[in-house]
Amino acid sequence: MFGSACSDGSGPTPTTAAKTTTAAPPRPAGPAADLHELSGGNGVGLGSPTRVDLADTGYVETEYAASGTATSYDPQGELAPDGRWTFQAGTTAEYTTRVLVRRPAAEKFSGTVIVEWLNVSSGTDSDVVWSSTHEELVRRGHAWVGVSAQRIGVMGGPALTPTDGGSATAGGLVNTDPARYGSLNQPGDGYSFDIFTQAARAVRAGGVAMGDLKPRHVLAAGQSQSAFALVTYINGVQPLTREFDGFLVHSRGGGGLPLAAPGEPASLGSETATSPTIIRADTDVPVLEVQAEGDLRAPLNSVVSRQPDSGQFRLWEVAGAAHADAHTVGPFADALGCGAINNAPMHVVVKAALHALEEWVGEGTLPATAPRLEVTPNSPPQVARDADGIARGGVRTPPVDVPVDILSGTPGPNPSVICSLFGSTAPLPAERLTALYPSSDAYLQKYTTAADSTIKAGFALPADRDALLAYAQPTRIQ
């Protein structure tokens, strides 16, 4: 463990936001992806369990083939735990990948673009950040761009999310729909970082992908394996490209995505991915990291990469939340075989995090600071819990502070690796509910007060108050 970077569990406490401004260094020139619209076949191929209907939002969705010559990176010296990595250009390879754009009409555009590194852990590109934040994106008028950066999502191969029967083999876009995607070619995950950069450059320049929109701020976002990738990008690539104005790192693990060899996918079992690594302290753009309670434990083990907040870094650890949850998987929850998976409002906190990052970048307003989740002195440390089994500390949401269930990042009855990602929801005993709440009205009053406290603290948005209140369960109180 990188001792100087790890929290003792006490962490900072919420404070009134201040404003900070930094002079942006010049952005180096570099190649941008060449974009050509995709059509035909079976339409847009994406592993989203819950599809969003854009028809009444004023948004349009367009898919592109993005082509160019990508450069890999070679590390100079060790990949040190302080994240101050030095990369230099390596080999080059031709690529053609997929870029998906969802953008509003020009008069509704905020000027901010969120570029998401699509998640390939299931073997299929998935827009996890979009799924968690699309309400905020649409009401703010942000554009969203999903980039198929990694090899497995495009070319196929072994899915990296383990299952009880072993790793499944995914076909990738080129094999599942060759009529639409047969021209794609991703040359290996070592090139993913430059592919991501080149897609962002094409977006920043406006042009075909953005119609008449002129972006002012381009933010990078990624969840889970994609968050591993952003750790590597921030620590080694951003100092070279300065392409992004800020980063939303959602549910990272202890390390970063490795620099894979040509033709190879990255491995989350590599030394780079499992070695404790913080976000470099001298990053020149804001980074907001959001971690679920379940991310601190294996297999993510993000507890080893905790670090203090600073002028350019914030860490929000969310009590009672799992790496993925009922909102993430939607109608597929029962098919997992994990029992009652976690049903915390993590997505509400992620929306607030995106809003805070956008204001940080655009206006210099610092996000709220959050107390760290409390951990035990064990080796490895465990999340400390109260008498009901609910996590102590961290970002608090109403279902955690006014509970009828024990929401946890710890899995339920099925201890498989895949189920460890989805946490659990276990009902509190009836006698405990009676002791906590004399009536359903008393419960609702406490719950509503807790929701307003979460909003006031900056960890939920006023626009999401109804979404928070929808998690209340007054009928459970007899």
Compose a concise summary of this entry:
With 478 residues, this protein is an alpha/beta fold. Helices cover 25% and strands 18% of the residues. The protein is built from 14 helices and 13 strands.
Between the first and last Cα atoms, what is the distance in angstroms?
A: 48 Å
SSE ordering:
EEEEHEHEEHHHEHEHEEHHHEHEHHH
* Structure classification: alpha/beta
Identify the overall geometry: globular
Number of helices: 14
What percentage of amino acids are in beta strands? 15-25%
Q: What order do the helices and strands come in, and which of them pair?
A:
Layout: E1 34-37, E2 59-75, E3 87-104, E4 112-117, H1 128-140, E5 143-147, H2 151-155, E6 157-158, E7 169-170, H3 172-176, H4 178-181, H5 192-204, E8 217-223, H6 225-241, E9 246-250, H7 271-274, E10 287-292, E11 313-318, H8 326-329, H9 346-363, H10 398-401, E12 405-408, H11 417-420, E13 424-427, H12 430-436, H13 440-457, H14 465-469
Parallel strand pairs: 4-5, 4-8, 8-9, 9-10, 10-11
Antiparallel strand pairs: 1-2, 2-3, 3-5, 6-7, 12-13
Helix pairs in contact: 1-9
